[in-house]
Design a protein that fits this description.
Blueprint lengths: L1 H13 L1 H20 L12 H7 L8 H9 L1 H24 L3 H19 L8 H19 L6 H8 L7 H6 L10 H23 L14 E10 L2 E10 L6 E9 L5 E5 L1 H5 L6 E3 L6 E2 L4 E3 L4 E7 L8 E6 L4 E5 L1
Antiparallel strand pairs: 1-2, 2-8, 3-4, 3-7, 3-9, 5-8, 6-7, 9-10
Length: about 325
C-alpha cells in the first residue's frame, strides 16, 4: 500500500501544472464573468446568454437543449448562473487539489459541453474546439492521477490516515484508486478520446481529410418562410455562420421582379431606422437596427416584415452585407 501511495503521489505531482492551469481556465470564466464585469444581467451588453445563443447554429448533439434555453430567457438565465457557479467550484477545487477526482469529472463534463456546443467556433486557431478536447483529455488524466504532494487532498490524507482506507475518499479525492485500472482499459479510453478529437475536428472543420473549412470566417444568412400578405412580405432570417464577436451588418434589402429589376430598396440609412415592431426576434440574440445598418448577431433568428405596395410583383428578395456578400431567396 505504501508503494501504491507513493506512486500516486508522484503521478499527482507530475500532473500538478496541468491541474493548476486547467483549474484556472474554468475558475477564470467565473472571475471575469462576475467579479471583473457582471455578464449575467439579461439585455445588457456582454450578457453570457447571448454568447450561449451563438453556439446554436452548428452545435453537435445538444442543439435541442441550447434552442430550448434561448427560447426561454428565464430558464436561460438560471442555467447561466448555475453554469457559472459550477465552473467556479470545479475550477477552484481543482487548483486547490480538493476532491480532485470528483472535480476532474466536472472538468471532463464542462469540456464536453464546450466541445459539442461551440467546437465549431474560432476565427484563427479553432479556439473552442481546442479548449474542449484538451479539457476532456486533462479531466481523464487528473482522474487517473489525483493530486499529489501539494494539495488539500494530500493534507487531509496526512492529517487523517484513516482516509487511506476509505474507498469513497479515494474515488472522489486522491490516493491510489480502489480498483486497479489495467493498461488496456486506459488505452481503450485514451483511444476513444483521441477518436472523439479526430471526429469533431473533421466534423466541425474538415481538419483530418478533405477540404478545410471554418464557419467563423464570414457571415452567412439563411432566408426562408416567405409570405406575401396584402402590401407586406414577411420572411425568416437566421444567421448561422461568422465570427461570434462580430455581427452581420446589413446595408441593403432589395425586392426584385422576375427580370431582376428593383421594385423597392432599403439602404443602410433606411435599415438603421427599420421599425422595431417589424422585427419579431425568436432568441436572446436579437436582430436590431444599428447606427448605419441592420445588425444580425450570430445565432439570431427573426421574422422581418417588409412593407411594399407592389408586393404582388415581387419574385426575389436580396439581402446585402457590408462585406459585399449577398443572399437571395425566390418567392
Amino acid at each position: 500500500m505504501k508503494n501504491l501511495n507513493e506512486q500516486f503521489q508522484s503521478a499527482g505531482l507530475f500532473s500538478m501544472v496541468v491541474r493548476w492551469v486547467i483549474g484556472w481556465t474554468y475558475f477564470s470564466a467565473f472571475w471575469r464573468r462576475l467579479i471583473l464585469d457582471n455578464k449575467l444581467i439579461p439585455n445588457e451588453a456582454g450578457y453570457i446568454g447571448e454568447k450561449f445563443n451563438h453556439f446554436l447554429p452548428n452545435a453537435l448533439g445538444i442543439k435541442p437543449l441550447i434552442e430550448h434555453l434561448v427560447l426561454n430567457p428565464d430558464q436561460l438565465q438560471i442555467a447561466m448562473v448555475g453554469f457559472t457557479i459550477v465552473e467556479a467550484i470545479v475550477g477552484l477545487l481543482i487548483i486547490l487539489g480538493l476532491f480532485t477526482r470528483l472535480m476532474s469529472i466536472g472538468i471532463f463534463s464542462l469540456a464536453m459541453g464546450i466541445l459539442l456546443g461551440s467546437g465549431w467556433i474560432g476565427t484563427t486557431c479553432l479556439d473552442e474546439w481546442q479548449i474542449g478536447v484538451l479539457g476532456i483529455a486533462s479531466g481523464f488524466t487528473l482522474f487517473l492521477t489525483g493530486s499529489g504532494y501539494y494539495s488539500v487532498d494530500n493534507y487531509l490524507l496526512k492529517k487523517y490516515p484513516s482516509l487511506h482506507k476509505s474507498k469513497l475518499f479515494r474515488w472522489v479525492g486522491s490516493g491510489y484508486l480502489p480498483i486497479l485500472i489495467s493498461k488496456r482499459v486506459i488505452l481503450v479510453v485514451s483511444l476513444l478520446i483521441f477518436g472523439l478529437t479526430l471526429y469533431t475536428n473533421q466534423y466541425f472543420h474538415g481538419g483530418v481529410f478533405g477540404t478545410l473549412h471554418n464557419k467563423s470566417v464570414r457571415p452567412k444568412l439563411e432566408l426562408s418562410l416567405v409570405e406575401k400578405t396584402g402590401n407586406s412580405i414577411t420572411l425568416e432570417v437566421y444567421r448561422t455562420e461568422g465570427a461570434d464577436v462580430y455581427g452581420s451588418f446589413l446595408i441593403g434589402i432589395q425586392l426584385l421582379d422576375s427580370n431582376g429589376n428593383i421594385l423597392k430598396e432599403w439602404n443602410g440609412k433606411d435599415l438603421s431606422e427599420f421599425p422595431k415592431e417589424n422585427i419579431n426576434n425568436h432568441y436572446v440574440a436579437k436582430i436590431k437596427p444599428g447606427k448605419y445598418s441592420l445588425i444580425i448577431p450570430l445565432g439570431a433568428k427573426a421574422n422581418l416584415k417588409l412593407m411594399n405596395k407592389n408586393s404582388s410583383e415581387t419574385k426575389f428578395i436580396k439581402f446585402i452585407d457590408i462585406s459585399g456578400l449577398e443572399w437571395e431567396i425566390e418567392i
